[in-house]
Specification:
14 helices; mainly alpha; 0% strand; 353 residues
């Protein structure tokens, strides 16, 4: 613990000096970059502990941690209306209306603000529900009723969150920005408003990912989606392995922090993908990838038996079908089609431009 505190005391100075040449962003985002490096150092420190030591280490933050968690199963009876329960016939529905419902909604609203694309958001929303189906044999928390997956989560919470997020993006895109100096504003109320807006976007860029326009973009989007899913799944596996209750401030704090880290990483990634003059990805992107990979290593080291439980045969079968179709379509779209029908591909590219 003392060694970790020593690293935390020294690293912000190094971060401020090493990253000062990063493209111009607000001081707040530079702070997030430094904190993300500190978080990565903390993860590396935890990685070299045993699982019991890691759980006990968290008790320094909260003495109530370090105790096994009762894992909640959202499956069971999927009857929305239970006529046998006269006092509360809709008890199956109300039992599932917990803190995860607003978390799903606000989570997808915030995720949409950094993804900024209906297609990408909905692909990820559907994909994560399918991942929950596939991994419910590892974590009981993923076991849900069909209407919980596709109506409550996908359509209501995720769908409304994505819709609101895109409307917020449209607002920021069309919003006029008047960045006057603080001391040029005559009223106290105006100065306070200017200080608050300091943390709003200086400008807003719409993302046009165009994943099927080139092989580079297509592979980039696949890697992006995979990393996104890994970060999402780490939330559930880390709390399960380290015995952190879902309502705990560490869970919520990590989600908010990773959203802030992902916001900068996504902007840097899009700039690298879309700007031909940009030859390398930004520092925050690499730090974000390092965090995701380190969290994966922690999950693998601390609970290898759970993480490596084999898929049920029917789940594995459909994943083989999906991956085979994905590889086949990729080869046909980007390698075979341009070779045999180059003129047709050229016309499609002109229309997209």
């Amino acid at each position: 613990m003392d060694h970790l505190l020593d690293l935390i005391q020294v690293r912000p100075i190094n971060s401020a000096s090493n990253f000062k040449n990063l493209f111009y962003i607000l001081a707040f985002w530079r702070l997030i970059l430094c904190l993300s490096v500190l978080y990565e150092i903390a993860l590396i420190y935890i990685l070299f502990q045993s699982v019991d030591d890691a759980r006990q280490l968290l008790t320094h933050l909260d003495a109530n941690l370090g105790k096994p968690l009762p894992e909640k199963d959202y499956g069971g009876s999927c009857k929305i209306y239970d006529p046998d329960n006269l006092e509360s016939p809709f008890h199956n529905f109300w039992d599932k209306m917990d803190g995860f419902v607003p978390t799903h909604f606000f989570g997808w609203w915030l995720k949409t603000l950094i993804l900024r694309d209906y297609w990408l958001c909905n692909v990820m929303s559907i994909g994560f529900e399918l991942l929950e189906y596939s991994l419910q044999h590892q974590l009981p928390n993923f076991s849900e009723c069909w209407w919980d997956h596709w109506i409550l989560d996908f359509l209501v919470c995720n769908g409304l969150g994505i819709y609101l997020g895109m409307k917020t993006c449209e607002y920021f895109e069309m919003k006029p920005y008047n960045w006057r100096g603080l001391w040029n504003i005559p009223t106290f109320k105006g100065k306070i408003k200017r200080i608050v807006t300091q943390f709003s976007p200086y400008s807003w860029v719409s993302y046009e990912w165009r994943p099927t326009s080139s092989l580079k973009r297509w592979l980039f989007m696949i890697v992006l989606i995979v990393l996104f899913f890994m970060a999402e799944l780490a939330t559930f596996y880390l709390k399960f392995i380290l015995w952190i209750p879902p309502p705990h401030f560490l869970c919520l704090g990590r989600l908010i922090f990773m959203w802030l880290v992902g916001a900068v990483a996504m902007r840097e990634s899009f700039e690298y993908l879309d700007n031909t003059l940009c030859k390398k990805m930004g520092t925050q992107t690499w730090v974000c990838i390092a965090i995701i990979m380190t969290e994966l290593l922690i999950c693998l080291k601390f609970d290898w038996e759970t993480v490596t439980k084999p898929f049920p045969p029917e789940v594995a079968f459909w994943w083989y079908i999906f991956l085979s179709a994905l590889v086949t379509w990729t080869i046909g779209q980007f390698l075979i089609r341009p070779y045999f029908w180059p003129q047709e591909v050229g016309e499609v590219e002109k229309k997209k431009e």
